[in-house]
Amino acid sequence: xxxxxxxxxxxxxxxxxxxxxxxxxxxxxxxxxxxxxxxxxxxxxxxxxxxxxxxxxxxxxxxxxxxxxxxxxxxxxxxxxxxxxxxxxxxxxxxxxxxxxxxxxxxxxxxxxxxxxxxxxxxxxxxxxxxxxxxxxxxxxxxxxxxxxxxxxxxxxxxxxxxxxxxxxxxxxxxxxxxxxxxxxxxxxxxxxxxxxxxxxxxxxxxxxxxxxxxxxxxxxxxxxxxxxxxxxxxxxxxxxxxxxxxxxxxxxxxxxxxxxxxxxxxxxxxxxxxxxxxxxxxxxxxxxxxxxxxxx
Amino acid sequence: xxxxxxxxxxxxxxxxxxxxxxxxxxxxxxxxxxxxxxxxxxxxxxxxxxxxxxxxxxxxxxxxxxxxxxxxxxxxxxxxxxxxxxxxxxxxxxxxxxxxxxxxxxxxxxxxxxxxxxxxxxxxxxxxxxxxxxxxxxxxxxxxxxxxxxxxxxxxxxxxxxxxxxxxxxxxxxxxxxxxxxxxxxxxxxxxxxxxxxxxxxxxxxxxxxxxxxxxxxxxxxxxxxxxxxxxxxxxxxxxxxxxxxxxxxxxxxxxxxxxxxxxxxxxxxxxxxxxxxxxxxxxxxxxxxxxxxxxxxxxxxxxxxxxxxxxxxxxxxxxxxxxxxxxxxxxxxxxxxxxxxxxxxxxxxxxxxxxxxxxxxxxxxxxxxxxxxxxxxxxxxxxxx
Amino acid sequence: xxxxxxxxxxxxxxxxxxxxxxxxxxxxxxxxxxxxxxxxxxxxxxxxxxxxxxxxxxxxxxxxxxxxxxxxxxxxxxxxxxxxxxxxxxxxxxxxxxxxxxxxxxxxxxxxxxxxxxxxxxxxxxxxxxxxxxxxxxxxxxxxxxxxxxxxxxxxxxxxxxxxxxxxxxxxxxxxxxxxxxxxxxxxxxxxxxxxxxxxxxxxxxxxxxxxxxxxxxxxxxxxxxxxxxxxxxxxxxxxxxxxxxxxxxxxxxxxxxxxxxxxxxxxxxxxxxxxxxxxxxxxxxxxxxxxxxxxxxxxxxxxxxxxxxxxxxxxxxxxxxxxxxxxxxxxxxxxxxxxxxxxxxxxxxxxxxxxxxxxxxxxxxxxxxxxxxxxxxxxxxxxxxxxxxxxxxxxxxxxxxxxxxxxxxxxxxxxxxxxxxxxxxxxxxxxxxxxxxxxxxxxxxxxxxxxxxxxxxxxxxxxxxxxxxxxxxxxxxxxxxxxxxxxxxxxxxxxxxxxxxxxxxxxxxxxxxxxxxxxxxxxxxxxxxxxxxxxxxxxxxxxxxxxxxxxxxxxxxxxxxxxxxxxxxxxxxxxxxxxxxxxxxxx
Lengths: 297, 386, 588
Description:
The complex is a heterotrimer of chains A (297), B (386) and C (588). Helix content of chain A is 72%, strand content 3%. Chain A has 297 residues and is an all-alpha fold. In chain A, α2 packs parallel to α4 and α5 packs across α6. Chain B has 386 residues and is of the alpha/beta class. Chain B folds into two domains: 185 residues, Response regulator (Rossmann fold, 3-Layer(aba) Sandwich), CATH 3.40.50.2300; 144 residues, Rossmann fold (3-Layer(aba) Sandwich). The longest helix of chain B is centred in the N-terminal third of the chain and has 21 residues. Chain B is elongated, with a radius of gyration of 23 Å. Helices cover 57% and strands 12% of the residues of chain C. Chain C is built from 23 helices and 14 strands. The radius of gyration of chain C is 28 Å and the shape is elongated. The chains are: A mainly alpha (297), B alpha/beta (386), C alpha/beta (588). Chains in contact: A-B, A-C, B-C.
């Protein structure tokens, strides 16, 4: 096996995992932009999405793709409940109570899932049902179909999201809300509804990421923990509150991890992204794209 | 004034806390001659180890029911008293203390994870009560503790079995070791290196990974680069095995694989499917290994609707062996039971034949099994040095 | 320095009668002695030892989160370092327990110091994430660096200390743990009303305001982190000796979250509350054992419930009840009226060619001006002309793009706000920046403690300043509950309590009604008569005209006129600037 194909394999694995980080990071960024809340339960939306899809598609009573859509709807409802139960009562308080409430929610989600679905890891079928390896080998590099789906969905979603926020009235309203709530309110935009929509959307893409990684990662109640954390790292490296940052940060993190594990140490794999994150925080806390915000006196 | 009031309230709160929380002391239950005998069982009902915890619970329950149906111990019934170990070191110690509160408990079945037993050791030494464990870490029974009894062969034996099978049966000399970086994985790695060395083989690769790894590309690359033709794994969690197996197949690596029990565990097989076909594993329990094992498998399937695994088999054996010792012992004092346990010779359990040595190790053989189209077939049983 | 000084005399401390505190301490001692006597089972003994360890550790978060408002999701790192220090020290290196303790406390304090310094760069969410990273890296190292930490196998055979008698039995050790817990709770409880604790709370409520009142906020945050680390480490040390065995899985992120939950549930700002929270949440899983696999779900619910419905925690709840019932301790009338420091130099403030650009925006573009001793110098100009920016640069809040500032003849350009404040410069803010949950008295104390002196002098100065602005009746009110006019006065009192040589007032009359404005004019006139030099930004020209004798007019970051009030008001450049701008202002 040639070195080139080895590197290609590592790169692809990194990009694919990075795509997953990106999807989770997008949810974090959107909620942060809209409400200044860092949602520590975002990783668990991934887990919930995967479990919902598992519950709906298990036994194949419903067509897989119908189940997929239904799961997205369920996630939307969950997002609304999350907004009403965790964010809304605390909307006028400082960031800390909200952060801790999201941590509480995260504990609740994980253990709720454990109580309902049990500890046994569950399997969900991939989107593209292929016999054999579930992928294709090109030039010595194995491409898992599911990873390709993840990358395609991530890119499509990023594009759609861009179009939505730039070219639709609702998107513009949501964007106005995230930029200046008071101003938006004065312009007659129903701010509470916009925020609720943001939560719903973030929950749905969080859930979507879970449904996409489920065939690869398997579904466990802890599957969102490390993902959420890595997504945070990605968000911060990219610049909190910046969508471009989430995308670049997510992909870069995946690739760095993948190469770090292959060429430095598999044991300290998780430490690379965190060290990178610490470096960013200490040297350039605003991230790649963020702007430094000074407190106005 | 404020502070006085405050502190008074604090005092009251602290006191009520205790009165409600810890004021319950156990009551001794009546007549000594016919009263049931209690067996304490630390089971993980919450946290990451619930999976194994459930199996362990089932195994013990089945054994207790069978023994009671057969008349109990000299006419006295067995009762299981379960406490949640919370899947953590602190949790198992807490649960152990809680069980020790109940003076009627004669023996205690501990958890499987080796670190948790290590955490309990100071308390076990102090409490002086026989404790059964399924923890396979070599050091556990070699730390001078007289009260710990192991119902599974230890990792030194599995390492010997794996190394011997790899080198002598599969005839592979370029062997890699892949292990999780926890107590089990690191300990197993050391023992495997030692066992291979005895057979004159130095591993070409020794690679650790962290539990819950999702992408083994780096590991697989290292395996490819090393040119290894055989792989010995000590992986703690079976989902990790599933992912590794899938990715090994996808990335086109052909390798002779023998691993610790997680390779044949149900989750790994469900998740990896045909990617695990043809792999070998060591297993302390296999239904075809002996008649008792077969009987146990049938009874387990009848009661719980699924196949047992080694978690359920060792607690099943532990209850039986404890019962045997309590039948033989003159009384139910911990020391008497301990002596009776040490005197047990040739007791056939589902896991194998129990002969306890002074360290408290009961078994000394390992089964090598193979995944043949998702059926776990017994290949051979290897007797190891203690 | 003065804020760090601990004075043993607490006679003038607010609401804190020494006999009461001794009584409370005595109650604590009785509990400590009784608990092990009442509950003798080994299960309970073990629980109490571990709960004490957790309680001590949680107190670190009380200081860090409760007092200083810094969030840490890596508290278990400190806990772990303390535990590993004792474990390695007593087993591997064969040290005496106490020496091992001192060494690990020193090490954990160093880690606290490093984390504290990161607050220079990061705050809020970012800090939370930094602490998570440190937490995960710690777990990775503890798990994988087998040569030192013993890896996942952990370390066993940990010793227990000797303290007069051997503490190797669980019962004796239990007493020791409870005693340490009592001392720790007392320390943290007392800290709250000490200058250091007050400065911490000021940083929490409003960092910028604390800075301009002379609080070295970075130092306070670093000290908070060090204290937090030491308490965390101490708890860990006790945990290690209590359980006799440690392994990395006791010091994970989950444990950090638990510490946080404990602190919050009990009440972040109270030592006793945190301790109770720790004990409650430590025992809760024990009681909820029958709930089996859903108790963590309940645990999560409790966290959300507490945050939403009892934001001050359980202790805050108790606090609310008795605050209504009990009257606060009265504060003696000041012995002498407010006294002020008069600077020795003639020129108090000299600004030369000062510029401040925000990107392309030239907020200040080469301004010169001089404030002489005894002047009330008005800074006027339309909105956005750079007045507030000027004050922010002078007080050190912004560093200038070019030019320099001399205060009392000394170069202060680019100095930190607290350093400038220490020299005797006080200021108020255009938008109120009070320490909202602190009382009026505490607000003013934060300022008065900057100029040092004994505790009595600090309190004396504070009450004199409060009496001067006429808020005597409100000393024990929380600032957030005061009407706007009073809040403005608190800010003034706070500025005065630090013995200012120069007072910068940024729109002191904005939002006041006519009566309040007139009262303010009288106060300012009185201050000027006492010799206080002031710089005044104000839009109400009639008010400015009543008190100012000198004025500088800014427009678009440049000085357009200066001189006496009469002079500048008739200057055609000024009139044009104002009329041109006023219509725009009305339109907005």
